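Progress note, sequence design subtask.
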C-alpha cells in the first residue's frame, strides 16, 4: 500500500518528479563515466610504466639521501639514492624468499654526453670506413676526398671569423693552428692519400676538426641493465632498427624517439613535425604560426645543408631542383634555390616533403649516429673526474603503444658493465680486466704527444679513484679541445665478453621486480621491507607510483580532481532534491493534514515520503547508470583520442579505452539512493511538524 501511494503521488506530479529524476540520472551518469575514466586512466598509466621500465616494485638502498624516482624529482635532476652493493646476492635472497617474483632486473639511471662532431668529423669517419671496405667504389671515395678538401678549404676563414675574432684562441695556439691549416690545404698532403691514410686522417681529426666552430652536443639519459633480461621482463620493449644487444656483449640501444628527434638532422626533424601537425592536427600554414616558424628556420639552415653536400651531390641536387622549381629557379645559385625550396606553404608542402627525402636526404648526413657505429660517451662523477666509455649502437627500440610520446623517449638502454664503468663502480672482476687493458695501453704511451696522453687518461684510472655512489651531472666541456685527442683510442671498444652472472655480480643503483600477479604488490612491499630489515639486506621497496615520481602522481591527482568534481555534482543534486521535496511536501500540507486527521501516524507520513524518494531515485539512478554503462561500452570500443603526444603515454597508446568494474554500477546506484534519502530527511521532518487541524485549514 505504501508503495502504491508513493507511485500515485509521483505520477500525480510528473513534471516535478521528472525534474528531480533528471538531476539524479545525470549525477549517476557522470559518476559511472567519471569513475570509469579514473579507473581506466590509472590502469593505462600503470601499464605504461610497469610494462616498460618501472616494474611492479622497485628496490633501492635504504641509505638513500633523496626520495627514489626513476624520472627524477620533477625532471630537475637525478636523485642521490645510494647503491645496492651486490645485485646477485640480493636477487638470490629475494627470489628464494618470495616465489611471487617472476623476474628481477638490475637498473641504474645516469646522464652522459656525446659530441656528435661536425661535418668534417662525420666525413672523415666515412672516409675511414671506405678504406676498410674493399668493395667501396673508387669514384665515390674520390668524390668524398674532394668534399673533404672543400670543407678544409673553408675551415680557415670560419676559424678566423668565429674563434680568433672572438678571442677564443691565444696567439700561440693561433700560430700552430694556421700552420696545420696550411698543411691540410697543401695539394701535397692529399697526394698518395690512399696509400697510408691513417696518419693523415688522424691529423685531420685531431688538428683540423676541432677548429670548426659548429659542433653537436647530445646529452643522453640512459639506463644500465642487462638488456636481454630487460626485454624479457618488459614486453613493451620492441626493437625498431638493428638488433637487441647480444647476450654477453657491451653496447647501447638508442630510443627511437631520441634517434628521430635528437640524432636526426634538424631540418628533417622540423619537416617531420610539420607533416605530423598537418596530418594529425589538421593545421595549416595560413593559420599556424608554429608551421611558418619551422619553415623559416629551415630556410635559415640552408648553409648547413650546402656544407654537407659533396661536389657531385651538389651538382645532382641542383639538377633535381631545376626540375622541381621550373622557371622560378632559373638564374639562381644553389643556395638561393634551396631557400626557395624550403619556403613552403599549404600548396607545395606535400610535394616538397617527398622531394626532400627522395633527393636531398640521401646526399646529406641524415643521422649523426647510425646502427653499428661506435662512439664515446663521457660522464662526470661527483668527484669531478670524467669517465669515458666507447659504445656500439646495436639498434634502436621503442615502447609499443606510446612510441611517439616524449615521456617514453627518456631512457636509452646500456649494458650494466659499461654503466658501472661510466658511473665509477669498480668491481674486483672489472679491476682485473682494466689492469690488463691499461697495461697494454700504457705500453704505447711513448708514441703519444701530450694531448693524446691527456685523452688516454679518460680510459685509465691513473689519476683518480672511482666514486661508488652519487649522481652524475652532465657537463659540457669548456671547449671542444677538452675531448680532442687520439681518435684511434676512441675507436677501441671494450670487446670482452661479459656473462649475465658477471653483470649481475656487482653494484647497481636500483632493481625492478616484476611479479607473477601485479595485484600482489600491495602485500609484498611491506613483506620485502620487513625481510630486508631482519636480514640486513640494506634495501627498501616501493610501488610503481612512488618509483615513477611525478608521473606516478598524475593518476592520483586526476583521481582526486574527478572525484571532487563528481562529489560536487552529487552535493548539488542532493540540494536540488531536498528543495524539490521540501516544496512538494509543503504543497501537500492539506493532504498530509487530512491523512493525519483520519488516523495516519507520523512514521507513516515519513515512510511515505521516503518511499517516494526511494522510488524516484532508484528508477532514475538506474537510468543514469544504464546510460553511463552504454557510454563506457561505446568508448571502450572507439576509445578517447589522446589530445597530444604526452597524453599518449598516460593513455598507454593513441587512445584511452574505458573499462568499468563489476562493482561500480552497484556502488553508484546505492550511493545515489542513499544521498537522495538523506536529502528527504528534512522535508519529511517538516511534514510531521504540521498539526492536522492547521493543515486542514491551510489554503
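Output:
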Amino acid at each position: 500500500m505504501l508503495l502504491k501511494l508513493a507511485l500515485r503521488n509521483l505520477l500525480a506530479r510528473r513534471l516535478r518528479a521528472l525534474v528531480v529524476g533528471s538531476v539524479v540520472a545525470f549525477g549517476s551518469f557522470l559518476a559511472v563515466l567519471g569513475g570509469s575514466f579514473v579507473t581506466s586512466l590509472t590502469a593505462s598509466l600503470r601499464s605504461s610504466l610497469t610494462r616498460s621500465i618501472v616494474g611492479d616494485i622497485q628496490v633501492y638502498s635504504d641509505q638513500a639521501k633523496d626520495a627514489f624516482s626513476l624520472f627524477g624529482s620533477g625532471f630537475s635532476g637525478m636523485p642521490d639514492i645510494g647503491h645496492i652493493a651486490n645485485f646477485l646476492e640480493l636477487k638470490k635472497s629475494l627470489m628464494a624468499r618470495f616465489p611471487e617474483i617472476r623476474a628481477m632486473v638490475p637498473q641504474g639511471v645516469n646522464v652522459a654526453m656525446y659530441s656528435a662532431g661536425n661535418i668534417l668529423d662525420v666525413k672523415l669517419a666515412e672516409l675511414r670506413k671506405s678504406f676498410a671496405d674493399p668493395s667501396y667504389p673508387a669514384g665515390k671515395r674520390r668524390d668524398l676526398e674532394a668534399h673533404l678538401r672543400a670543407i678544409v678549404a673553408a675551415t680557415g676563414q670560419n676559424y678566423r671569423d668565429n674563434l680568433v675574432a672572438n678571442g677564443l684562441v691565444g696567439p700561440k695556439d693561433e700560430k700552430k693552428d694556421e700552420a696545420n691549416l696550411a698543411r691540410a690545404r697543401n695539394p701535397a698532403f692529399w697526394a698518395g692519400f690512399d696509400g697510408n691514410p691513417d696518419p693523415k686522417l688522424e691529423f685531420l681529426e685531431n688538428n683540423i676538426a676541432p677548429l670548426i666552430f659548429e659542433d653537436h652536443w647530445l646529452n643522453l639519459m640512459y639506463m644500465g641493465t642487462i638488456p636481454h633480461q630487460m626485454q624479457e621482463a618488459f614486453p613493451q620493449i620492441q626493437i625498431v632498427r638493428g638488433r637487441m644487444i647480444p647476450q654477453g656483449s657491451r653496447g647501447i640501444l638508442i630510443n627511437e624517439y631520441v634517434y628521430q628527434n635528437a640524432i636526426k638532422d634538424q631540418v628533417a626533424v622540423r619537416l617531420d613535425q610539420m607533416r605530423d601537425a598537418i596530418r594529425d592536427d589538421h593545421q595549416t600554414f595560413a593559420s599556424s604560426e608554429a608551421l611558418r616558424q619551422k619553415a623559416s628556420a629551415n630556410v635559415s639552415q640552408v648553409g648547413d645543408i650546402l656544407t654537407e653536400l659533396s661536389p657531385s651531390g651538389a651538382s645532382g641536387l641542383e639538377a633535381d631542383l631545376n626540375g622541381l622549381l621550373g622557371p622560378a629557379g632559373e638564374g639562381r645559385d644553389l643556395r638561393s634555390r634551396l631557400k626557395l625550396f624550403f619556403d613552403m606553404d599549404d600548396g607545395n608542402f606535400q610535394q616538397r616533403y617527398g622531394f626532400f627525402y627522395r633527393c636531398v636526404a640521401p646526399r646529406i648526413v641524415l643521422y649523426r649516429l647510425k646502427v653499428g657505429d661506435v662512439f664515446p660517451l663521457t660522464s662526470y662523477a661527483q668527484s669531478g673526474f670524467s669517465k669515458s666509455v666507447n659504445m656500439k649502437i646495436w639498434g634502436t627500440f621503442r615502447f609499443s603503444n606510446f612510441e611517439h610520446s616524449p615521456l617514453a623517449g627518456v631512457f636509452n638502454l646500456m649494458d650494466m658493465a659499461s654503466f658501472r664503468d661510466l658511473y665509477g663502480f669498480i668491481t674486483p672482476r672489472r679491476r682485473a680486466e682494466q689492469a690488463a687493458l691499461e697495461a697494454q695501453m700504457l705500453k704505447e704511451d711513448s708514441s703519444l704527444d701530450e694531448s693524446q696522453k691527456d685523452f688516454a687518461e679518460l680510459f685509465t684510472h691513473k689519476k683518480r679513484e672511482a666514486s661508488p655512489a652519487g649522481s652524475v651531472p652532465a657537463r659540457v666541456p669548456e671547449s671542444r679541445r677538452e675531448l680532442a685527442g687520439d681518435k684511434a683510442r676512441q675507436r677501441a671498444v671494450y670487446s670482452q665478453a661479459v656473462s649475465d652472472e658477471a653483470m649481475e655480480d656487482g653494484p647497481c643503483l636500483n632493481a625492478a621486480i616484476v611479479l607473477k600477479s601485479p595485484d600482489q604488490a600491495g602485500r609484498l612491499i611491506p613483506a620485502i621491507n620487513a625481510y630486508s630489515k631482519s636480514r640486513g639486506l640494506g634495501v627498501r621497496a616501493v610501488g610503481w607510483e612512488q618509483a615513477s615520481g611525478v608521473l606516478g602522481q598524475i593518476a592520483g591527482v586526476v583521481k582526486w580532481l574527478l572525484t571532487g568534481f563528481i562529489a560536487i555534482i552529487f552535493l548539488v543534486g542532493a540540494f536540488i532534491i531536498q528543495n524539490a521535496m521540501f516544496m512538494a511536501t509543503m504543497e501537500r500540507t492539506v493532504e498530509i493534514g487530512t491523512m493525519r486527521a483520519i488516523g495516519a501516524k507520523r512514521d507513516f507520513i515519513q515512510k511515505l515520503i521516503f518511499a517516494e524518494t526511494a522510488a524516484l531515485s532508484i528508477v532514475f539512478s538506474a537510468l543514469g547508470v544504464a546510460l553511463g554503462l552504454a557510454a563506457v561500452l561505446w568508448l571502450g570500443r572507439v576509445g578517447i583520442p589522446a589530445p597530444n603526444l604526452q597524453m599518449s603515454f598516460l593513455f598507454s597508446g593513441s587512445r584511452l579505452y574505458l573499462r568499468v568494474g563489476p562493482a561500480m554500477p552497484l556502488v553508484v546506484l546505492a550511493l545515489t539512493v542513499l544521498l537522495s534519502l538523506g536529502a528527504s530527511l528534512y522535508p519529511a521532518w517538516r511534514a510531521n511538524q504540521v498539526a492536522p487541524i492547521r493543515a486542514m485549514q491551510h489554503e
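The chain has 30 helices and 13 strands. Work on this subtask will continue into the next period as scheduled.
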